[in-house]
């Protein structure tokens, strides 16, 4: 049997176009071919389970190897294999139509970045790095004949009878001159680590040496020797594929260490698992960070059926949750479309809402289960929660029940609790409740003391995100304003009876006031003479809240 044929497509020169668009991503050829090998292996396993394949499954390890001299890379599997007819159907027609569709879609795209870059180009991505590709395959079916397919990247192919005796498929790539960098152990190991680390079938890439025990020596000490063992590059059942009830905290922490070796332990995590109306699994971690500047975005890895796709999860994960770490695995996220399409995609929207809800539920659960422990973590969690409150209305609605405010006495309150606490005395003449806050407890120390003297409470809102958080909750809370403790408002709140008699007469007060005003010579400040005892602060100089905010913004370049 020998047959030559022409792959029927309209675009003659498909490969130059594929190469052009996926230029920076040539390495994905390996992901695609290994995924196909894994798929073929999963299929034979399923057929065996269903009783439709009665032979021995045997060792089903997929193997990746290369030959520097022959300039080949080979991907071998012991999957279900293909008959010559199936090659014609699946490789010549179907796979090629996928590639054709890709080109049709993107030949006019101006910017290659518009394409997610991770298009499932499948089998034909082999031609990004190979000048010639061979398929040696034997189908699992009774009486199947082995077949060899070869193609040089033009639309011409050749199929002939093969000699293969065992079930499965070898894909042999004859690497082109421009791609010889891939004929390198570390290069290939790196690509496999990146894309194939969690695939569900063992993948072997060469061997590695390992120390094993080798009896005891004369003195009774244990002896070790080095042996060569298969280098299996993947973990076949990563934790997100398991049930939470089968996992211990340690498993989650170990997995985190595996993903981010240099990081501190995370604060907590959320195991995601849903099959309807879309399929999604994953584990999201809240990282421990010292401050906002340490926060890193894009640490979430996106997988599709355990194949790594990207760590650009923008538009899939809500913006504020980009600060989380971990993995999301979903076959329902379209990977082959441009960003703008992704934003409009119904599944992506649902996934977005689902994740937001899950995170809010988890926080709510932690808060309800053990408030003291939650308060202790607030310093670390607060940043995420505030960011979420500011950026997602859906999250605000849930978040207001577990968002905490901390005062200068180290006490924590929810928004409602705090309103109840202060509204009796911290109310201005327009009946607005005033939350006082300090942005720097040391510098504003005397103002805090003076407010406390009047039984007013002062919050600490001192991180960079707080200025945005303050503005946001003002728009959300009814009849409530937030004022920095050194704002002029403090004096204008309805006060309880003065506890000290004023040591100055009215006239004297007026004179002192004028004296200060003259010395300051700036209309944006106002001077108040208080009826306090002489050892305290008889004079406070304040600035209107809005004026100060403007100044702060000018200093920080607009405040973002
Ligand atoms: P996809 O994997 O999305 O179906 P591909 O272009 O990667 O698209 O592959 C096309 C088809 O070729 C596969 O669906 C499968 O039927 C067949 N195929 C590819 N590689 C193998 C393999 N190693 N063993 C068996 N069949 C394969
Ligand atoms: Mg494929």
Residue fraction in strands: 15-25%
Largest sheet: 9 strands, mixed
C-alpha Rg (nearest Å)? 33 Å
Across the major sheet, the strand order is 1-6-5-4-7-3-2-8-9
Low-confidence stretches: 110-120, 496-501
Report the average pLDDT across residues. 84
Helical coverage, percent range: 25-40%
Number of helical segments with 4 or more residues: 14
Task: Compute the number of strand runs.
Answer: 21
Ligand species: adenosine-5'-diphosphate, magnesium ion
InterPro entries: HATPase_C_sf, Heat_shock_protein_90_CS, HSP90_C, Hsp90_fam, Hsp90_N, Ribosomal_Su5_D2-typ_SF
Organism: Algoriphagus marincola
Pfam families: HATPase_c_3, HSP90
Keywords: ATP-binding, Chaperone, Nucleotide-binding
Short synopsis of the structure:
This protein is of the alpha+beta class and 560 residues long. Helices cover 34% and strands 23% of the residues.
Write the layout of secondary structure elements.
Elements: E1 2-6, H1 14-21, H2 28-49, E2 62-67, E3 72-77, H3 84-106, E4 130-138, E5 147-151, E6 156-161, E7 168-175, H4 185-196, E8 203-216, E9 222-232, H5 249-259, E10 268-274, E11 280-286, E12 299-304, E13 307-310, E14 325-329, H6 339-344, H7 346-369, H8 371-391, H9 393-399, E15 404-406, E16 412-414, H10 415-422, E17 433-438, H11 445-453, E18 458-460, H12 466-476, E19 480-484, H13 506-520, E20 525-529, E21 539-543, H14 545-555
Parallel strand pairs: 2-8, 12-14, 17-18, 17-19
Antiparallel strand pairs: 1-6, 2-3, 3-7, 4-5, 4-7, 5-6, 8-9, 10-11, 11-14, 12-13, 15-16, 20-21
Bound molecules: adenosine-5'-diphosphate and magnesium ion (MG).
Pfam family, one: HSP90
Family: Belongs to the heat shock protein 90 family.
Organism: Algoriphagus marincola
